[in-house]
From TrEMBL:
Protein name stated in the entry: SET domain-containing protein
PROSITE patterns reported in the protein's UniProt record: SET
Organism, as annotated: Sporormia fimetaria CBS 119925
InterPro entries according to UniProt: SET_dom, SET_dom_sf, SETD3_SETD6_MTase
Gene Ontology MF term list: protein-lysine N-methyltransferase activity
Superkingdom of this protein's organism: Eukaryota
Length: 474
């Protein structure tokens, strides 16, 4: 494999050399440098102020030329000069035309170019060397099975499982698309001479997932040097990133920073503890809430419309809990599809497509549901809206109860010697944060349920249902 086996194309360079690389390629710095934060060396590299920095008076702290930005557009430019990169991007088809697909292929190509056992493949570019400065992040995809067991009962456990499956599908897609390209077969896939493995794909994914930022006009991309700034949310965020009129990347000062202080950006204040570990491998210091959780939800097996609902669903199969200003809120498109049925007005038909095939068409009364997200707006207009809300609240409360039961049953087992302290502490903290948030969500759902049960439309509906049940019994 290129990264972790017989040869190493992911050769590492010390971060102390990054400033020289940046200066050579036209990156400019204004009062900042790379290095460990004094007193917090164990946190790794950071962007540190070399003098007192004053907001609204400073030019960009870092200015990155647009040609150095690892974006979908620039990869196309690189591919014009690199026929091997072009071959792979064309071979993987639609996947290579996505930002994620293009960036991961590009990163693998840089490791291939740098591999000492591979000759005359690819074209060197400034980012070939930059990739070597990027640290390996201990994301959960690199945790052992024993370490992942400590995530039992958290929302991160199914997320990691799904990520593994997704990465495997991508890796096999790349393999099947490129194994007939001569140099790919020889250097990547051959049983004897091939050097690429699934671990390399995971490594490229971790680099992109932990460092991608969304820039105006560019979308998701990797921004050399600026992506060394660490995360801090809320008032602790000291800087922000932007692009100028020429498409160059900029790190701009938001708040005053004393000499020796850390220049921080936000990776997203709304991201929950689960997503922070999943994408970045850490939980922010001082975080006292899980912030956000996504709980998956299954359509009951005894629902006669289950196959049709699964066929037409376009929403994430579950619901999201968010902690906003101390109150637990929920959001979902999927749950509304689960809680309504034929007697309410939901219907399905087989529709013939242009090419002669057939597909399932969903309708709410006379309205066609081209996407699941439209269902709620129709339900809100119904006289039984409170009834549908009550069904949704009870369904989600039961799901929260089940998650709480799993967390309580797992408890807090001690760490064995084979489990690394980092993953163990992260898992322990995540369980604690999610447990507390789920307890609050349970209370919130109970209050909403009691309020809805007091609704006139719900009481009328329940009275009618009771009368029909007694009549059927008679």
């Amino acid at each position: 494999m290129i990264g972790l086996g017989r040869v190493d194309g992911w050769l590492k360079r010390p971060v102390e050399e990054l400033s020289a690389w940046a200066a050579f390629h036209g990156v400019t710095f204004n009062g900042v440098k790379f290095g460990p934060l004094p007193g917090f060396e164990e946190r790794g590299s950071a962007v540190v102020a070399t003098r007192d920095l004053t907001a609204n008076r400073e030019e960009p702290l870092i200015l990155v030329p647009r040609e150095l930005i690892l974006s979908r557009q620039n990869i196309e430019v690189f591919a014009k000069a690199d026929k091997h990169l072009r071959e792979v991007l064309d071979a993987v088809g639609d996947f290579g035309r996505t930002t994620r697909g293009a960036v991961l292929i590009f990163l693998l190509m840089q490791a291939t170019i740098s591999c000492p056992d591979i000759q005359e493949i690819g074209v060197l570019n400034p980012l070939t060397e930059y990739v070597k400065f990027l640290p390996d992040e201990l994301l959960p995809t690199f945790w052992t099975e024993e370490e992942l067991e400590f995530l039992t009962g958290t929302t991160l456990r199914p997320a990691v499982r799904a990520k593994f499956n997704s990465l495997l599908r991508e890796f096999e897609t790349v393999r099947s698309a490129t194994e007939n390209i001569g140099w790919c077969q020889r250097y990547w896939w051959d049983d004897d001479t091939g050097l690429l493995s699934f671990a390399d794909w995971m490594r490229a994914d971790a680099m992109y997932r932990s460092r991608a930022l969304e820039f105006p006009g560019l979308g998701d991309c990797m921004m050399p040097c600026i992506d060394f700034a660490n995360h801090a949310s809320g008032d602790a965020t000291r800087a922000y990133y932007e692009t100028d009129g020429d498409g160059n990347g900029m790190l701009l000062l938001r708040k005053d920073i004393p000499a020796g202080g850390e220049v921080t950006i936000t990776y997203g204040d709304e991201k929950g503890a689960c997503e922070s570990i999943f994408s970045y491998g850490f939980i922010e210091d001082g975080l006292d809430s899980a912030r956000a959780m996504f709980l998956d939800l299954q359509i009951p097996d005894d629902d006669p419309l289950r196959p049709a609902k699964l066929a037409v669903n376009t929403a994430a199969p579950g619901f999201r809990l968010s902690d906003k200003q101390g109150k637990i809120e929920w959001d979902t498109d999927y749950v509304w599809l689960v809680v309504v049925n034929e007697e309410d007005g939901l219907d399905f038909k087989l529709k013939q497509t242009i090419d002669g095939g057939r597909e399932v068409q969903s309708l709410w009364k006379e309205h066609e549901l081209t996407e699941t997200g439209k269902l709620r707006q129709y339900l809100e207009q119904e006289a039984l809206w409170d009834v549908y809300r009550l069904r949704a609240v009870v369904l989600m409360q039961n799901r929260v109860d089940a998650q709480l039961e799993t967390l309580h049953a797992f408890g807090n087992p001690p760490r064995s010697r084979s489990v690394r302290e980092g993953p163990w502490r992260l898992a322990e903290r995540l369980r604690s944060l999610e447990l507390a948030m789920l307890e609050r969500a349970k209370t919130e759902f109970e209050e909403q349920k009691l309020a809805l049960l007091d609704s006139e439309s719900v009481r009328s509906y329940l009275r009618l249902a009771d009368e029909q049940e007694q009549e059927d019994f008679t």
